[in-house]
Amino acid sequence: MSEPWTGERVRExxxxxxxxxxxFLPQRFRSDRPVVPVVRLTGxxxxxxxxxxxxxxxxxxxxxxxxxxxxxxxxxxxxINSPGGSPAQSHLIFRRVRDLAQAKNLRxxxxxxxxxxxxxxxxxxxxxxxxxxxxxxxxxxxxxxxSFGFDKLIAKIGIERRLYTSGEHKAMLDPFLPENPGDVERxxxxxxxxxxxxxxxxxxxxxxxxxxxxxxxxxGEYWSGRRALEFGLVDGIGDLRSTLRTRFGxxxxxxxxxxxxxxxxxxxxxxxxxxxxxxxxxxxGLAQASxxxxxxxxxxxxALWARYGL
Length: 310
What we know:
Strands 1, 2, 3, 4, 5, 6, 7 and 8 form an 8-stranded mixed sheet that branches. The chain has a two-stranded antiparallel ribbon with strand order 9-10. The protein is built from 10 helices and 10 strands. The longest helix is centred in the middle third of the chain and has 26 residues, at 181-206. It has 310 residues and is an alpha/beta fold. The chain has 2 domains: 30-140 and 221-306, 2-enoyl-CoA Hydratase, Chain A, domain 1 (Alpha-Beta Complex), CATH 3.90.226; 143-198, no CATH class.
């Protein structure tokens, strides 16, 4: 004669049934293992063309939102590999990460791959903890700008520059006009303002962890990951997978969060796979212009990476 179905037996039966069903649930819906979503932030910040998307707020906003909204998330990981770029885009991304972290009360861990330099390091500072590889490039806390001067070339080949403006400084730093010392000083003043803000941001996030001399830390110099650890620019040496498994256990689930695929578009290589281009829908002229822009962008990006020997 079988035992009667008591309340306790019913509860035990439900527990066994739920345990069996849990094996068929997607990993992100299972509550028996920690989840740490990973957002990749890779590329030059702000340089963006259809075929070579850079790292921009628009390109990664949804990926960040999805990562911080993931159910059962124990933390959010940022995989950073950037030589820097636009200070505005760097700060926009920094601000979005901090806002989401505070709103969701989630810890953020940044993992530096080849580089977190200049604006890339600004983004890393949005994390509560920064982990680098021993050979990562870290730092370059400064501001840089550059141009070319073509005025002597066009004079030599007989080209006359005609430029019409309204506003005394509207043509400031035009590469086809002789360099104006006053314009250069105005640019340097702007750079100093941005640099001071960058320094204040790093100090606010790293605080007493910074141990290196300020005249070196904020000079624009950069270091290996191991040296950056000595200066307090990072918190540890390691890699994403090993660190998260040590921190959250061998069963930690680390889903890579990327932007959504469009209906009539395909992903292209870039930051977080966030930029999209249409398949065969662009006019020929636009495609040729995009190719030219992409070639120029590739050269600029290559030069920026090369600055760090990468």
